[in-house]
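User: I'm putting together notes for a lab meeting next week and I want to include a structural view of one of the chains we've been expressing. I don't have a solved structure, so I'd like a prediction I can at least talk through. The sequence is below, exactly as it appears in our construct file.
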Amino acid sequence: MPSEVIHVTDLNFDDVIHSNPIVLIDFWAEWCMPCRMLAPVIEEIAREYAGKVLVGKINVDENPITASKFQIYSIPTLIIFKNGVEVDRIIGLVPKSRIEAYINKYVK
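Assistant: Thanks for the context. Below is the predicted structure for the 108-residue chain, given as structure tokens.
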């Protein structure tokens, strides 16, 4: 798994969540200030959990199919997938420690 955040789209979303055991996806938009504030935290998590968690970002404006499928009504929304299935969801700008607490439930 890479140590940087990967770009996820409607086209590769299913492949990404099904080809990695644990995936954190950040649903965001360019105009969203809380999303932009969260971006450095997401990048840190990608580096710190490299090899354990794949971290991706999907722009909801550019990828409306996936955003609709997962009923993303507020951003930022972080969804954790385990073996391709949603297991947790975090909505809003939250501290890094809270995100890590969610991730650590699934990382061994």
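A couple of points you could mention at the meeting. The two ends are 15 Å apart (CA to CA). The first strand starts at residue 6 and ends at 7.

User: Perfect, that's what I needed.
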